[in-house]
Amino acid sequence: MENLSLILDEARKKLEEINSASELGNFYQNYLGKNGKITELLKMMKDIPNEEKKSFGMQVNNIKQEIQLLISNKEKELAKKQIDEKIEKTQLVDLTIPQRTKKGSLHPITIIQNKIIDIFLSMGFTVEDGNEIETEYNNFEAVNVPKNHPARDMQDTFYLDSGQVLKTHTSAAQNRIMKKYGAPLKAIFPGRCFRNEELDASHENTFFQIEGMMIDKDVSVANLIYFMKEMLTNVFGKQINVRLRPGFFPFVEPGFELDISCPYCDGKGCRVCKHSGWIELCPCGMIHPNVLRMGGIDPEKYQGFAFGLGFSRLAMMTYDITEIRLLNSGNIKALSQVRIK
Ligand code: FA5
What we know:
single chain; alpha+beta; 9 strands; binds adenosine-5'-[phenylalaninyl-phosphate]
């Protein structure tokens, strides 16, 4: 019995000096391996007198369990040491520290914008950037709204001292993009727009639109309907029907308001579509010849369609947000509830 406690003391001392996994492997063999010290002791059981067998057996098993525990603790110690050394060497962050910060999430506007961009990229459109501060020319004149034209009143504008404006619509980039690429052209350009609005649950002074333009030979309203249906079916993940009603915008002729069949009740009538089965979604039309001309494109040779989708409202519809001001509120608790779907 004295020997047994000596074996344990000795094992403890040896373990303290161990610094590597291979040394620990040897230690295991020396004690618990096939011919290890503890295994040999267990083999001796058969020679122990009967009256001592029980107590001897218990002692040996206790020591065996103690050594197993010591080995397992040593294993953990060595693993931690290895990670610490690696961190020290590579200056990496310690990834084993439990995470305390909350997982972030994308803003609903970003989610819907990325979705629309992906769809149009897959249909061969390029994605362009627009300015937030624009010249009056690009925002109005270049899209067929000359000075003093009554249509300027449709968009109550923020003017800067410099004479520039905060762009009131993404159409402000049309001219620049036409001049940059010429025809044929297939582009979308998402962006932030600003208007001096009376604010309510569906009107913000700062909101997002995504403009699309396709210019080529023989482009017609049929192409416009095809691309809009394709995009909306992808956004809503189900077949969406569209209808066009006449709409007036000086930069398109003919101009339309595009309605979609309500994706919530499949056109049967519900709260969202105000029981009409249709939702007004996106103004669009065939680009006015004057606009093509100002963009350096010959309207005798080329035609095109354009649309200006307000995707702040599309994000509200998609994610069941009833108050538009939430989108610019910075209310992380509410905004982070929207997950990619
Ligand atoms: C325009 O801005 C035109 N440039 C769209 C266009 C482009 C027509 C190309 C034809 C061809 P409108 O003012 O209707 O049109 O705005 C387009 C969309 O922007 C609206 O349907 C709406 O979804 C969104 N929108 C407009 N004003 C606001 C606002 N104050 N708050 C939130 N969304 C708005």
